[in-house]
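Standup notes, structure subgroup. Blocker cleared on the EPZ input:
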Amino acid sequence: MNKYVIQGGIPLVGEVEIGGAKNAALPILAASIMTDDTVYIDNMPDESDTNAMLQAIESIGAIVERTGRHSVKINASQVKDVTIDNDCIKKIRASYYLIGALLGKYKRARVVLPGGCNIGLRPIDQHIKGFTALGAEVNIEYGNIDAKADKLVGNHIYLDMPSVGATINIMMTAAMAEGKTIIENVAKEPHVVDFANFLNSMGANIKGAGTDVIRIKGVDKFHGTEYTIIPDQIEAGTFMMAAAATKGDITVKNVIPKHLESISAKLVEMGCQIQESDDEVRVVATKRLSHTHIKTLPYPGYPTDMQPQITVALGLATGISIVTESVFENRFKYVDELTKMGASIKVEGSTAIIEGVEKYTGASISAPDLRAGAALVIAGLSAEGFTTVEDIQYIERGYEDFEMKLKDLGAHIEKVDTDRELQKFKLKYA
Ligand code: EPZ
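Run returned:
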């Protein structure tokens, strides 16, 4: 099984090109089946989650043609089936977007229950509430979600919490329902706005994405489109945090600085210098980081998907930092692994109390999920000595060429498959 081996202690310096946003790409690829015309998607990240979504839509008859590593042409005029249960899709959370897409277009969907990172309970009651309010009958049976409707009719829906998935999923179905839908207390994440822009480019009538209320006028059908996905806020933030933790100097390129503001603001509090231009952010860390406190919140608050990365950086800061996770219940599992590297962190419920240490030391650790996995790689890069990170399949769900991009910034990191390769790496850098 592949793992990363890292020799840490080297400040990362240079420029890194950020790819398209995974969490925008996933619903966009799912919704591409809502038209019989051809859809062209650009700036698509080449990651295992997006590839699983493409396989899922192919499995029901969509014609998927890769026109480049980051571009794809999709034609779903030959879709014959509304049942999705192939093995790939079982592993990803975003399989739930296929319910919204199929239900909207075909008034029928049967999709295996979503998998994804184990970071909390992750119920989908708000999605189901929305589909039901639009007139669908939704049942969970034999491990599948089965949704059907004779007719979908717009409604007024109030979400209990601003769920990204529920906002996008309900938007998708409502865009093809009869009449008007108003969704209140919606998620405002950049990928929610990007998704609404994509659906509008196919002929939907959606207003208010990015605010608390989304208003939709249903249309009968969508048409083809050409669409470029926004840059990935979390990939960019991860490299920004790698600059901070390794006392480096990294410029993230092809980003929307506005989407990174909550991350940049925290890095400034921690003593980093931030320089922003139109589509770049440079992070320079020259001295030991200072402590700060963080609470994860829906956008525009500090993102939960950036919580493990900042905890790793704060583990090396002066003083005591407190990190409160308010979005998911179980997102501190990686702290045990970080402790093996010398971190001093106590987790009490949804709060981590971090007493900064002067350095981490290399250890053998495993990635428990996607973002925590990336955070542990950052820990390895800033640690003294060698670190191995196992279970990197989690990291590959959402970071394209992660180790290659880090190598270009000067990191000593390799993806290895055998003990021989591991020893070779260690000899090279001993
Ligand atoms: C999306 O998950 C992302 N995944 C997650 O990214 C991200 O962490 C999360 O949004 C928050 O930003 C994708 O886009 C595929 P939510 P999602 O619905 O949609 C509760 C990553 O690392 N909730 O916004 O599943 C839920 O339990 C991944 O890229 C309900 O109770 O998250 C959580 O506490 C990990 N009932 C909160 O709402 C529901 O019906 C927010 O979840 C839906 C959600």
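Discussed briefly. The longest strand covers residues 63-68.
Next: hand off to the docking folks.
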